[in-house]
Predict the 3D structure of the following.
Amino acid sequence: MKTTIKKTGERGSRAVGLIQFTQAALVSMKEFKNGEGFEKLHALKLSYAKMTELEQLEKVRKYFKSVARLPKVPEDIYVAVFSPGFVGKENTDTLYKKGTDSYDANPGLDKNNNGIQKSELLVKYYESFKEGNKSNNIAAVSIADKKKEETKRIHSKIVTFASDLSQERINQISNSTIRILENAAIDSVNELIVITSTIRNPLQQAAAMYHNESTGNHITYKLPGQKVINVYNTSVKNGNSREETIRLMTEKIIELTNLKQTVSRHCVSEEVYKNFNIVDIRLSLPNKRDFVYSLLKIDAVTKIIHPFTNMRPNPKLQYDSKEQAVHVEIKQ
């Protein structure tokens, strides 16, 4: 990440550094006192800008020591930097009201013109997370670290992953799940299994739902999911862009998640996902139905959603003609 410092006028200076240190942050870290003057503040920020990333990490550690309530989920790390008093609070809470200095510094986050809500900030988090996962934005790791990470996972010649899945999403799949899919593939005489989807954050879930709806593939959802589809329909009717529609859908998913309503079994916390791996399998299997029947023999497989007609009845099976994959839920 580039570190920059800009003077915006005679009496002000922008945030700087790895987590965009502000005057308030520096005060909380006890590196600056309000009233000590702009020149000292500017000099302090300039010193941060000249630090290497590793040197700045010590300052990041010091900042998080000053946060009263430490984050327990990745989203709240983002919140801790932007508005530390709202770590662990409800997603519907208003972080900054209109007319405050903090609001005036970030008016673009307020999409509903009613103050900056935590849910609006989290949309920005998921967008930034997606951008950061692009290959040209991912920092290189040493070969030794890479090999150490790879040793944690079974290397399967049968079970593979779609090329557009990030390593972080791949890493959520357990070795137990890999073995179950391998065994079912061997039993059904399928040489290759391709996992196309695993865990999703709210933005990824919204994007997936938008894609399905916009291409005429109307997946059947329970009530929470249908509420998100209603947002899609209203937004499209109002002539909103793809980006704006996905943003609105993401906000709705965050709101429903906060109310303990699950839009999709893919879109859950990492902790929940560790107990139940949810995977989608590409339909390009020579023996699709046999693969499903093989999965049904395994106790850990609790549910399969599929688009195949004339399947033998089974309480674990759910038919959906619009399903574009074999959706498998596996208890860990």
User: Anything to note?
Assistant: Confidence is low (pLDDT under 50) at residues 1-12, 136-151. The beta strands are 7-9, 12-13, 94-96, 116-117, 159-161, 193-197, 276-281, 301-306, 317-319, 326-331.
